[in-house]
Amino acid sequence: MKILKIILITILMVLTITPSMAQKKNRKKKNKITVLKLYEGPELPAEQLVRIITVNEKKKYAYFIEVDGNDIPGNSLMNGAKGILLLPGEHKIQLRFVSKGQIAIPIESFDPFSFEAGKEYLVKFEYIHGKGSYPGNLEKTSIKLWIEEKGEAGVLMEKTVNGYGISIK
Fold it and tell me: What residue segments make up the domains of the chain, in order of their start?
């Protein structure tokens, strides 16, 4: 009888622990960023490419919608590529900013910038939701996006827009 109890308790413990371990594993996979290859030709080593990643929060994020005048494939209104690989050189990028339940707008393109091979760049943002009711609050909304080189201090370029996605500085 005692052995039966021990076996039942062990089985219950295994059944309880296994699903929670699977959930943790799935959460880690969801946080992984898919990086799109946006250049022609064969796969190249990282030191020959430019990698640009958006730094995101849970309900606030940015994603790429256009590079050099070409739409990014597979985007929807609320989701898209959060990482891209490009050949080095001058590129013009455009993003959409989303704050779930508040706003989802395309941002005016950054000015063309010469990205260097072998480097990773981060797109970061600061979002201030405008006070008041819609649509009046859009004029008071502020979204500042900037690009910096990973591991380096300093902003390479930045853009501040209102809730319509129009530059305000």
Answer: 1-32, 35-161
Does 42 have pLDDT greater than 90?
Answer: yes
Q: Is 61 left (phi over 0), alpha (psi -120 to 50) or beta?
A: beta
* Higher pLDDT among residues 149 and 8, named by residue: 149
Pairing of strands 89-91, 93-99: unpaired
130-157: b or e for each residue (b if 16 or more CB lie within 10 Å)?
Answer: beeeeeebbeebbbbbbbbeeeeeeeee
| 99: amino acid identity, one letter | S
The residues that bridge with 67 in the sheet, in sequence order, are 70, 93
**What is the Cα–Cα distance from 11 to 82, expressed in whole angstroms?**
42
Report yes or no: 129 and 137 within 8 Å, Cβ to Cβ: yes
- Look up residue 110 and give its two tokens: 């950054």
